[in-house]
């Protein structure tokens, strides 16, 4: 599977899209480069939420590996998103090109770093990594597979997935989430939320017995993407997703002018709900304009 990213990650193809080497190589040849910003944290969250789930071709019994290729320093918190993946047993390999930040690559990648971090000066030099990286990836898969328990459930299905996400009590800076838990209660829930036009993903981890959450300190008049993931001992169930916008900040209304004199005026207005202060700006009208 492959996703490209800038400020908005984009899935090019899912894990289940192709079944032969030649098909994958043809897809790579037809790939169009996506320029733009470098929101690596948002991209890693996209991979977890969109690409590493059963209906995108992720098999529960298969090892989960993410290979990150970047040519710049992330403009959001890549470390937090990477840590979430690593906590779920997903192994990250970080490959830097040109202007990549090596310290950031080492933060994002899984241990041991001598096997998972690579950095080259330009794109043509990536070909020099192919042989070693292929060998390392295959060896890691074999090592991890041999250690897995045989009793991992075969698929997630509706037994492990919450339903019916409801977003209510939306204000300019908060919203309330509720959902119906799956038949098999999870160990924990992971809630991820971020502005749809790009921004740092934030997350909250809840006990599996809880099925509601109040999100606070949000930005007003902003569309948010919200995802709720059930976390079990050996798997992450399918997530619930929702989109909603916070309300704009309340405005003062009914501005009135009174008590005019040669050097003063009195202003009055109806209060804006929730406002703690007002900023009043006043300037002389240009010559010839109506006062």
Features:
291 residues; alpha+beta; Rossmann fold; Immunoglobulin-like; 2 domains; four-stranded antiparallel sheet; three-stranded parallel sheet; globular
Structure description:
Helix 2 packs parallel to helix 3 (78-87). With 291 residues, the chain is an alpha+beta fold. Strand 1 and strand 2 form a beta hairpin. It has helices at 21-29, 40-51, 78-87, 102-108, 113-116, 130-147, and strands spanning 2-4, 10-13, 65-70, 91-97, 117-120, 163-168, 175-180, 188-195, 202-207, 212-215, 223-231, 240-245, 253-258, 266-270. A four-stranded antiparallel sheet has the order 9-8-11-12, with no helix packed on it. Strands 3-4-5 form a three-stranded parallel sheet. It has a three-stranded antiparallel sheet with strand order 6-7-10, with no helix packed on it. It is globular. It has six helices and 14 strands. It has two domains: 2-148, von Willebrand factor, type A domain (Rossmann fold); 163-246, Immunoglobulins (Immunoglobulin-like, Sandwich). Residues 1-133 form the VWFA domain.
The tally of structural domains comes to 2
Number of strands: 14
Low-pLDDT parts are 149-155
Structural class: alpha+beta
Mean pLDDT: 87
What gross morphology would you assign?
A: globular
Beta content comes to 25-35%
The CATH class label of the largest domain is Alpha Beta
Helix segment count? 6
Main beta sheet strand tally, sense and closure: 4 strands, antiparallel
Strands in their spatial order, largest beta sheet: 9-8-11-12
- Which percent range fits the helix content? 10-25%
Rg from Cα: 25 Å
